Structure formats: structure tokens, C-alpha cells
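can u pls check wat happens w/ heme C
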Amino acid sequence: MSTRVMRVVVGGLALVVAAGCASMGGKKMTAEEAIDARKALMKEQGAAWKNVQDKTKAGQITALVPDAEKLVSTSKEIPKLFPEGSLDPQKSNAKPEIWQKRAEFDAAAKNLETWSVKLRDTAKTGNAEQTQAVVKDFGRQACGTCHQPFRVPPKQP
Ligand code: HEC
């Protein structure tokens, strides 16, 4: 049931009602809350993805299952953390294209879910070779296909 996200448009207000998300209390997130929440979620994804790569290198294949599972669940949270009107170039690297091509953005989140499920299920078998093959393409295919069109590239230090 947690995968079911319903969009209800009431009097011009788009409320994103997510089953199992009691913390939102039915209120609409402010732009600032959404930006903070999605940056925190992306950081968690960054950490999980680093764990996946480290464990793959170390040959700890089944040990990366929880990290892949983490990405399965975070991927489902992505769409609701980008509500309409949460564009703020001062605080956020989200591009306006997210809201211009909403269906493509949501599909990119779904694509991450599909890849994460594939990574998790492959890692569960303990097969190092097959897991490495998924990991090899994951960064580009699962993360990059959304970052490339929809995120302002981070400045190089
Ligand atoms: C559906 C689109 C999408 C997918 C898939 C996605 N990201 Fe992101 N990511 C974004 C957007 C948009 C931002 C910029 C958010 C902002 O600044 O408001 C971002 C920002 C980030 C950041 C910077 C967070 C910060 O501190 O500001 C990290 C790290 C990150 N993503 C990691 C990942 C990793 C790792 C994956 C794959 C496992 C991934 N992302 C998949 C859209 C996506």
C-alpha cells in the first residue's frame, strides 16, 4: 500500500496524499520543507549508493542487499518531495524542467525503483559477477538519467 501515491486536486491546491506518510499530517509541504527533505533524501541515496559500490568491490555481495532495499524505498519518496512551486535556484539545484516535464521526471524516479529492485534481487543471489554488471551501469542509468536533465550540476570545488 505504501507505493500508492494519490494526487488529489482540491480547489486548486494539489495535495499529495501518500498512504503511510502520517508525518505530513495531510498538510501541504512548504517549498522550503520540500527542498530540505529532498536534499536529505538524496544524501541518504548517496550514502547507500557508496555502500553498494564499496561492498561490491570488497566482494560482500549479499551485504549490499539492505542498501539496495534502501534505494527501493527512497525512490518511491522522490515524486512527492518535488511539489509544484518548490523551485528555488538559491537553495536548490532542481531545474524548472521537472515541472515542465513532470511525467518524465516521475518516470525517472520509477526507473530508479526498477534498477534498485534489480540490484537488490541480483545481490540476493550472491552472484558477484552478475551484481558487478548491474553496479557498473547503475550510476549512469539509475541516477544519471534523472540528474542529467533535471538537476543543475553541482559546482566543482
Ligand atoms: C527522479 C530524479 C532523480 C533520481 C532518480 C536521483 N536523483 Fe539525486 N537529485 C535529483 C535532483 C532534482 C536533485 C537536486 C535537488 C535539489 O537541490 O533540490 C538531486 C540531488 C542529489 C544529491 C545532492 C543532495 C544535496 O546535498 O543537495 C545527491 C547526493 C544525489 N542527488 C544522489 C543521488 C543518487 C546516488 C541517486 C541514485 C541512487 C539519485 N540521486 C537519483 C534528482 C534525482
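Residues 1-24 have pLDDT under 50 and may be disordered.
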